[in-house]
Amino acid sequence: MWPWLSFGTLGRFAFMSNSATNDWRVEMPMGGRSGLVSYHEGSRVATFDWEFGGGNTVAIIYIGKASEWSQRYPWAADRRQEILERVKQEVIKQRAPTCRADVDEQVDGFTYLLIREPAAS
Q1: What range defines the domain where residue 86 resides?
Q2: Quick one: which of 100, 108, 39 has its CA closest to 49?
């Protein structure tokens, strides 16, 4: 079974938060072959589409272009990398603890977070 499919104790929703401050969290509702990953900070939300991958890529999370970030999420305009790191860590922790996450920055400006199975030893 793919670790990505584990549901945890909250049923269809997975909530991971920073237990030290509880001012942000990552939610990953499951139900199908694609969906949304949501980053919440207070009442503000940044959402990212995800879908299952192929080969050793378990899932692909579409982060979008850096140039679009300040328009879509002005409250986090200068914190894109910090939020991306939080999402990356929480997705691995909650859904794919045996996997790794790689950031794929494309030449056209698009950014993807690739959740991959560990490399064979």
Answers
A1: 3-116
A2: 39
Identify the helix (H) or strand (E) that includes residue 72. Answer: helix 66-72
86 near 74, Cβ under 8 Å? Answer: no
Q: What is the pLDDT of residues 16-26, one digit of tens each?
A: 444 434 689 99
Tens-place pLDDT, residues 90-120 = 999 998 999 999 999 998 889 999 999 987 7
Domains of the chain: total: 1
Write the DSSP string, 13-48. Answer: --EEE-TTT-SEEEE----SSEEEEEEEETTEEEEE
Asked if the structure places residue 121 within a domain, the reply is no
